[in-house]
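Progress narrative, work stream C.
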Amino acid sequence: MPRSHVCAFCGHEFPHGQGLMYVKRDGTILWFCSSKCKKNSLKLHRDSRKLKWTNYYGKKEKGKG
């Protein structure tokens, strides 16, 4: 059974073998489903909770307050 990945920006699930893998200097691996998500996250520094087309839209982080 092939595994799937979840996009680090929009939260959509996509199959293994597609998407983009980005490795940060500290060793953290970020999976992106498209270049649109990669650019919004890394280049434009947008918050995925403020964009309606993401799964994280309107969600609050737990434990912060």
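Work stream C, second folded protein:
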Amino acid sequence: MMANGVVTKKIKMIAVDDEESILKLYSRILKTETLVLWNDAAEQTYEHEQIDLDLELCKDGHTALKLIEENGQETYAIIFIDVHLSFGESGIDLAEKVRAADKDIEIVLITGDDQIELTDIRRRIPPGNKLFYLLKPFNPQEICQFVTSLSAQWQLEKQLKKMHNNLENRVAQRTEELMCATHKLMDEVETRTRVEESLRQSLDNIQIIIKGTIQVIAKLLAMKDPYTAGHQRRVSELAREIASQMELEAYDLEAINMAGLIHDIGKISIPSEILSKPGRLSKLEFDLIKTHPHIGYSILKEIEFPWPIAEIVYQHHEYIDGSGYPQGLRGEQITLLSRILTVADVVEAIASDRPYRAALGIEQSIQHIEEMRGVYYDPEVVDTCRYLFQEKNFEFKTKVL
């Protein structure tokens, strides 16, 4: 319960004494005064706790035990017991019975300053069993201090116990669920293993079919333009090597290898006389050549490859300054694999014979990409490509025509 920044907590207590005057003293101290508890956590929000005291006064132990045993959900937090009770059992006997009836209640024995008496208390009920004692004569401040400190301790232990019980219940419930799930999984392991093996074999077969499909596509273009077929194989070799040197994942290496093998597939729609024209292309002819990335994308996007081959092919003539074609993409709008393929494509093209000129060689290729580094071509890709040729002595495995 909270009001005006004050958290009010109800605390139930019992005071047992056979002297009417002492019981009246308890009542006067604990029923007429408001006790306020400040705690470290609350200070940060300028809130404090106020104890709402519910005090039961008993002249004998039998009445007190009956209250404890018949109490419902709201258990008692503290019981004050006078050691020297005139009626029936002693306060120490009562404390033992109270502890047996309620393991959580805070017991405070009220005793005189008698060493023999204190020794007997410690012997029969060791301090480790949540037992406290208060020496007579006590004053109101001492009682208030006991109430504030012990009620806070009782509340904390009550919360911890509740949390512990909730945790135990959750653990037990979760354990049972896990046991059931484990048994179910064990029953399914053999079936799952067989299914996974079947799926693995199916995936391998699909990979073989896909790679076969790519080879067929490449051969279709080779029948129309043998130069382009050789060019694609060499571009694929270099692009994969650049990607590997850049420490890309195996998935990306396979993707760029496959894309490289068919990156010029769109040229299948270009007339052969234009592809093999020995002289300079006219503007109209060159514009027709520039359509091949889009045509290649249109062909490949209908095939469900496990890699983004259509997209890589679509972008392999884009430049990072936005001056490329067909979309005019720039920077990281172009996928990394396409940026790699672009460099591999231009290096191979310059180094090899073209219908309209003789091969210019690797040195001319490297010089070109370095001049256009950061303009047309990705700087990291350019540096990696140069490193492969100049430091790793990369050579094309596929014969240059």
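The first strand starts at residue 2 and ends at 3. No further action is required on this item.
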